Amino acid sequence: MELISKYQYVVDKTTETVMEAVFQDSQPINNYVMNVLNTIVDSVGDREYRFQQNSITIQTWLNQIIQRQEEKSVCRQMAERLLSKEIDTQERIEHLGVEIPKGILIISLVDMQLSERDEKKVVVIKADYNEIIEQDTGRLTNGLSTKKKFYKAFIANVTVNQITKLSTYDTNATMANYWWKDFLELEVIRENKQNTKNAFSAIEKNILNPIKTKSKQDYLHLWNITLGYFRLDGEFNLDEYRDNIIGNYTAYSDNVSKSDLQAKCDNLPQNGNFDRRFEKDLKGIKGKKLRNTIPLTREIDLLFKDTVPNLEDILQAEINEAGEKFLKIKSAEGYEYAKNLRDTNNE
User: Fold this and answer.
1) What is the extent of the structural domain holding 129?
2) How many domains does the chain contain in total?
3) Is residue 56 domain-resident?
4) How far apart are CA 199 and CA 70, in angstroms?
5) One-character DSSP codes across 33-92
6) Same domain, yes or no: 151 and 240
7) What is the mean pLDDT of each run of 10 residues along the chain (347 residues)?
8) Considering the entire predicted model, what is its pTM?
9) How many CB atoms lie within 10 A of CB 23?
10) Cα distance between residue 175 and residue 46, in whole Å
11) Do 70 and 211 fall into the same domain?
């Protein structure tokens, strides 16, 4: 990978200014940029986009960068456009007590140096530009954190000078709409409803159902936890599901490998046709898809209509002295149906 060009601007909505970021020693900032690029250029990205049909400003500027035409002027205009969108957005969200941080906009053209084809990437990064205290002088100054890198990025894949794929990458907890929709003039390829449906189906097919033949207990518990995650308001994040939902799960059976399940997760978006991050919308999933039926006997099924908090307290397994196996279900209402069955039958 070779950095062909790089332009950087401090975007400060508080002072409503855009200034070219100049560093006396350029090596640290170059290292910072290369570290970020190494992280994101090989990434599949969080979500795929296309350009909005009637919006051509950013698309035109990106093509100028690819063609190496008036790059500096174009990049300056992009920084000024970002400032304008941040000012507008801050006014809309002021009542929420949320502050868009001061940032540095870095626009780079990268040659991927793949001998078999001419492939480049235009990478647009907005990194938080934090206030820091200098160790030697004790003075307040501004700078980039080399440890905690908070940034959002846009990647345009370019093959033979043609843009072939648009994606984003974000280290923040939620993806900001003003970044991709207002500033970059993008629209999603897959709507949240379709993403939710496809993600749930892919996880069920590739992660959960195969567990059933290895350990029914682990299957039920992971299905219950997964459903709970999907029912929570907010964003689906595949990395969060892989690292926290599966990563924090302790299997009951040695036949269930947590690392194998986590490895499977990374291939799900491509095979299941969904983005790695999106706002969950269960409207795309039919009600019966969110239910689970466990066969108990030939005549009786146990129907799960929703996720069950503290499942291990609700369901308990027992074996009596005769070796007969029982499932105990904590249920005051169910108790009323069965409380005198044995006594009545023995009369």
Assistant:
1) 2-188
2) 2
3) yes
4) 42
5) HHHHHHHHTTS--SEEEEE-TT--HHHHHHHHHHTTSSHHHHHHHHHHHHHHHHHHHHHH
6) no
7) 91 92 83 83 84 93 96 96 95 88 92 79 88 55 66 92 91 84 95 95 96 95 96 93 96 95 93 94 85 94 92 93 93 89 59
8) 0.82
9) 13
10) 9
11) no
